[in-house]
Design a protein that fits this description.
alpha+beta; 98 residues; two-stranded antiparallel sheet; two-stranded antiparallel ribbon
Length: 98
């Protein structure tokens, strides 16, 4: 969470299924060396439970806005309504509050 708040960690999460690749981190850094230093602060990395393979990657600048957008959306309840209002369930909706 600290790295996301500092703007260094753009995206992180696990992959589903069984395999050697367990998850992904996308950092907003100037070099592979800086990314390596950040991964060394991860407890699972330090304990040897996970191993990091670093690659340079270029993506949309908009991706760095994900953390700011998340802060806004995570606080809002989400109202989901059925697409087809002609069905008998037209008055039903789902409210998800986080």
């Amino acid at each position: 969470m600290r790295l996301a708040e500092e703007g260094k960690l753009v995206l992180a999460g696990p992959f589903f299924g069984i395999g050697d690749i367990r998850g992904i981190y996308i950092f907003n850094v100037e070099s592979i060396e800086e990314a390596k230093m950040l991964t060394e602060t991860d407890l699972a990395m330090a304990a040897g439970s996970l191993k990091m393979e670093l690659k340079e990657w270029y993506g949309s600048t908009a991706l760095v806005a994900v953390n700011d957008i998340y802060k806004i959306l995570a606080k809002r309840p989400i109202l989901i309504k059925p697409r087809d209002s002609s069905r008998s369930h037209q008055n039903q909706s789902l409210l998800i509050s986080r």
